[in-house]
Structures are given as structure tokens and as C-alpha cells.
Amino acid sequence: MKYFIGTDHAGFEVKDFVIDYLQKKGIEVEDLGCYSTESVDYPDLAHKVANAVLENEGSKGILICGSGIGMSLAANKHKGIRAALCHDYYTASMARKHNNANILCFGARIVGKGEIESILEGWLNSEFEGGRHQRRVEKIDI
């Protein structure tokens, strides 16, 4: 499985930490930017990652900004994207299990590296449960 990652300037500082964490688990990661702490517009990166996930079947994405809110709002404008703003292991796990989220969002100004590891573990260790959740997920894409 391939992951596409994108951040704005607020998320830039933790991006390499996330990439390294995923690669140590044998996960292929493609960095779609940004590439410095110079100010950028978060929707541009959210759209880039959302499009990459949609164009590459079975892939997933990670978006990081200051709060995670802007990235999740922008990514969710794309039909077929279910970007979940997660703050801990539980929210990340439930986003996968019940919502079949395909993009993980979090705020670099909200969570530290220890919590980021926990979020990633919740995300990576959980699979979509289907069943009653499938019909609910289908109602998202209207």
C-alpha cells in the first residue's frame, strides 16, 4: 500500500517524523509537499493528496496542518475521499473501522510526536469493518 503525504508550513516540522515512522514499517510514502516552513495555502496540498489517493486505487493519504481542520475540510470536497481529523488512537482507529477513512488528518500544533505515533498505530492497526457501516459510508458520497 502506498501513502501520499502533504503538509502546509505548520505541519512541515513533523512530516519527516511521520515519513520515517511509516517507512520503518515498510510502507511506501510519497511526499507531495510542502518542502519548507515558508507559508503555503493548505487547500493546495489537500487537493494534491486527495487527487493522488483517488488516482491510485488502494492508496491512502495523510494531511497535516496546524489544527488539521483546514486540511480535512478541503480534502473532503472530493467525492470518494473520507478525510478524518484524528486526535488520538481511538479516533484514528474508529475512522478506519466505521468510516473507511482514506485520508488521516491531524494538527501539528495540537498533538506531539508521542501522540502522533499513537494516532498512526490506531490508523494502521485498524481495518474497515463493513457490514452496517458500509451503507452509512455509501450515504456520504451523494
UniProtKB/TrEMBL annotation:
Chain residues that bind D-ribulose 5-phosphate: D8, H9, G66, S67, G68, I69, G70, N99, R109, R132, R136
Keyword field contains Isomerase: yes
Keywords attached to this entry: Isomerase
Enzyme class: isomerase
Pfam families named among the record's database cross-references: LacAB_rpiB
InterPro entries recorded: RpiB, RpiB_LacA_LacB, RpiB_LacA_LacB_sf
Keyword Isomerase among record annotations: yes
A molecular-function term among this protein's GO annotations: ribose-5-phosphate isomerase activity
Active site: C65, H98
A Gene Ontology BP annotation from the UniProt entry: D-allose catabolic process
Documented EC number(s): 5.3.1.6
Family per similarity comment: Belongs to the LacAB/RpiB family.
Name the UniProt record assigns to this protein: Ribose-5-phosphate isomerase B
Originating organism: Caminibacter mediatlanticus TB-2
Source organism phylogeny: Bacteria, Pseudomonadati, Campylobacterota, Epsilonproteobacteria, Nautiliales
